[in-house]
Amino acid sequence: MTTIRFRLAIAGALLVLGGCVTFPGGPSVMALPGSQMSFDQFRADDYTCRSYASQSIGGQDAQQAAVNSGVSSAVVGTAIGAVAGAAIGGSRGAGVGAGTGLLFGSAAGAGAADTSGRSLQHRYDTGYIQCMYAKGHKVPVAGQFTSSPRRAASPPPPPGTYAPPPGGSYAPPPAPGTYAPPPAGAHAPPPAPER
User: Is 171 inside any structural domain?
Assistant: First the structure.
């Protein structure tokens, strides 16, 4: 009997803590009045866009969705636990199973409530941002700077060869006695001009 009370106390604590998670009742993003717009126009557009965003998610708010999701998960967990407990241990097992199901259902419900609330809040914010932007107001946008891909450095030339210098300038000639013969069919350089 003590374990059932202990488990129910833990389940109740989880439900209470899960109820502490709150979501804003409006947009969680900032919008600023557009250029050349009065504050009164901004407030009117804000009201219109809040209504539009609320309609786009079916009229419920994120907090309401989170509570509904959490409670339904706890109820389902309790029912499954009671059925499993009754199947395993009869009427006494049903009570233990229900308590265990409530405990695990509450834990799962807290996660489901958070996910459900965040998803609904994101959809609300998206509708609100689209509406405010369409009305000419300044809204946050996610942006990323992309850097151009770096070219890999070319490997150094094999020993004994000379790479052309960068920028079109000429490197000093090799040391005397290390000149390679000109390739076959190469033209001789023009003679130096007379001074």
Answer: no
